[in-house]
Design goal:
The chain is an alpha/beta fold. Helix content is 36%, strand content 29%. The chain is built from seven helices and twelve strands. Strand 1 (50-59) and strand 2 form a beta hairpin.
Amino acid sequence: MLETLLIQLWWIFPLLIAGAVIKTPWFKGLFGEWMVRMSAKFLLNPKEYRPIHNVTLKTPDGTTQIDHIFVSRFGVFVVETKNYSGWIFGGEHQPMWTQKLFKITNKFQNPLRQNYKHVKALEALLNLPPEQIHSVIVFVGGSEFKTEMPPNVTYAGGYISYIKSKTEIFLSPSEVDAVFTAIGTGKMTPSRATNREHVKNVQLRLDSDAPRLCPKCGAQMVLRTTKSEDKAGNKFWGCSAFPKCRMIQNVT
């Protein structure tokens, strides 16, 4: 009888496995990326906006990974996707934002700061001025902003409206072609090895005690102690090339 029952209910097990996979952060992130791609495919004119997805670039301190890039006459749009549910609290200049989901509270890095690194990597690769590269943050997953957000932080398809709101022409058609080609040539080849290298670099940056390189010039960072009265004794990472490079990072 047990064998017969298992034969009749075999289809339940794949459903249970699929249900468990759907709930994982990996799948939610993948689904969010797909949603952004699809909305761009149907709502952005492909003759005007040329997409490049999943771009990993070398940086002075390792690598940086960009979710989506759209190259157009109106500049280069750098899109960072965040898949969060619940209430989102955060300010443009706050280092950490907060997600509140029922009784659970989580902290995560300000995505504007995260995307700033992406923008700077593209500026270096393309030799474009800052005003020609636009940072865009798009939240998917049913979240709700509980604090006022800047215009470039949006929900789902709202990022399309923000992109279309930029109408000042910066690049000629030939320059758009050149930028698109430069990104395709400058990015690392998408592969498991590339992903593993990027994950390793991220883990090293999150380890406050791990040796690190300056994200601005690539020199070794040195752990230093603040001597000013109001913050005396606080530790921070300073670039060893000081005073030529004045890059600093907080010890988290």
